Amino acid sequence: MFSRLYGLVMQWARHQYAPWYLSITAFIESVFWPIPVDVMLAPMALAKPHKAWFFAALATLFSVLGALFGYALGYALWDPVVQPFIASVGYEEKIIVAEQWFKQWGIWVIFIASFTPIPYKVFTVTAGLLQMALLPFIITSLIGRGLRFFLVAGLMRWGGEPMERKLMHYVDVLGWICVGLAIAAYFWFSR
User: Which of 158, 129, 126, 142 is closest to 42 using CA atoms?
Assistant: First the structure.
């Protein structure tokens, strides 16, 4: 099952419009999209290692542009647009946690959210809601997102074709491990 999906993803990664898809995904992932950019960036960097740095730069640029849009939503449209949407998807607690993290760690929370798998979108909108200084927000986002995406692209470029063959060999096992971990995490966090 996963090997077929992997083959399809690699085919998409080689598509002529893949950079456009990557840019759109990076932009909307910083606002509301639940699928991380890495899912698109990694196969693209594997499929075309000579363009890995370009793809990482593209992902970084559009992710930060999306973050600015998320910031603007939180800043200017919290009450009429964002808050009702947050309530409808049950993210109220996540916003409260984000606000607490901002109070506790300040700007470092943007770096942590932009580099790690923590939902960056929650912090882009919350930064706007809390009216965080814009220039530090942009600089920290550029550094965090850039480090993350260039690391992913670099690993794929470094691994190249041998990594692609190894991934193809183990993709079904890795896929089922991920499913198992997701189910375990769901039960762990829903207690």
Answer: 158
Q: How many CA atoms lie within 13 A of 110 on its CB side?
A: 27
For residue 160, pLDDT over 80 is answered with no
* pLDDT of 54 over the 90 cut: yes
Express each pLDDT in 131-156 by its tens digit: 999 999 999 999 999 999 999 899 88
Q: How many helices (H) and strands (E) does the chain have?
A: 9, 0
| Distance of alpha carbon 66 from alpha carbon 52, whole angstroms | 21
Residue closest to 150 by CA, chosen among 121, 178, 107, 114: 114
Domain residue limits at 71: 2-189
When divided into structural domains, the chain yields a total of: 1
**Rounded to two decimals, what is the model's pTM?**
0.79
Is residue 53 scored above 90 in pLDDT? yes
For residues 137 and 127, the answer to whether their CB atoms sit within 8 Å is yes
- Look up tokens 């995406």; give the residue: 149
- CB-CB neighbours of 142 under 10 Å: 16
